[in-house]
TrEMBL record:
Keywords: ATP-binding, Nucleotide-binding, Transport. PROSITE patterns: ABC_TRANSPORTER_1 (PS00211), ABC_TRANSPORTER_2 (PS50893). Pfam families: ABC_tran, oligo_HPY. This is Peptide ABC transporter ATPase. The keyword Lipoprotein does not apply. Residues 2-258 form the ABC transporter domain. InterPro entries: AAA+_ATPase, ABC_transp_ATP-bind, ABC_transporter-like_ATP-bd, ABC_transporter-like_CS, Oligopep_ABC_C, P-loop_NTPase. GO terms for molecular function: ATP binding; ATP hydrolysis activity. It comes from Kosmotoga pacifica. GO terms for biological process: peptide transport; transmembrane transport.
Amino acid sequence: MLEVKNLVKHFPVRESFVKTLLTGKKKFVHAVNNISFNIKEGQTLGLVGESGSGKTTTGRLVLRLIEPTSGSVVYRKKDITALDRESLRKLRKEIQIIFQDPLAALNPYMKVGDAVRHPLDIHGIGNKKERHDMVLDMLSRVNLEPTSDFFKRYPRELSGGQRQRVVIARALITRPKFVVADEAVAMLDVSVRSQLLDLMLKLKEEFNLTYLFITHDLATTKYICDKIAVMYLGTIVETGSFEEIYKEPAHPYTKALISAVPEPDPDLKKEKLIPKGEVPNAVELPSGCFFHPRCPYMMDKCKTEEPPEIKLSETRTVKCHLFNR
Ligand code: SF4
């Protein structure tokens, strides 16, 4: 359904004219560095990494909310990066996003009913009565009250969980087929988080959705993702299923991420791997393997040679010289 190929996004760093003149070159934040992946229809791909790993930028590039520096995003045989404005506007019915912060995502002056109906107005779907009925139907599908009283409430009058359900209802009202969920449950309490994950799974079945599920929390991917891609400094360092990656992580960065997940079973021993130092800034990327300044397994060639993507099995890949012998 979706094929991302050699996607790159570099943001120019805002510096004073004098500084640029003195250094002689413009600087860039290398947010996404030549990544490729694909998602099959009905699948959920989890994009996992710390903040600053480039996963949110990737989600926005996939929907072309921002323009890529280079690379392509092909959705059902259409290259999204090459579409004109009108074709892109029409396609937005089919591809949607659920944002992390429901309070910021909702207009504080727009009532719930109007907010959920808004995409139908934009795309000219249905008449007034049909739109009203579609909103009622969608509210009940996301387990909100389909009543005129609830219709008239403002976002500030709702709990965090209710607000995120409204955001989900608004994203799904045009019956999209592909949804980017960007840290969709990260800001909610743990108990509400599991309800929302259950809801997203239920809606996936009902509407035959395909998700790109962006999260910093590897444990969350267990419940919802068929496949995981681990990101570090704008590159994908490992892919595989949750079971494969969680039980036997291959990349040292993935090992570190997993060792940071609290283990409820005290008898289960996990290798503790704490990487050295901090994540380097994305303006001056390390040479060779981007993880080499922090990697406990670093070898000489890691400093100079970028590791190739190595296929470990039909379902797994890793970018690390440890597997390239
Ligand atoms: Fe560590 Fe080298 Fe593998 Fe990079 S390529 S993760 S530095 S062992």
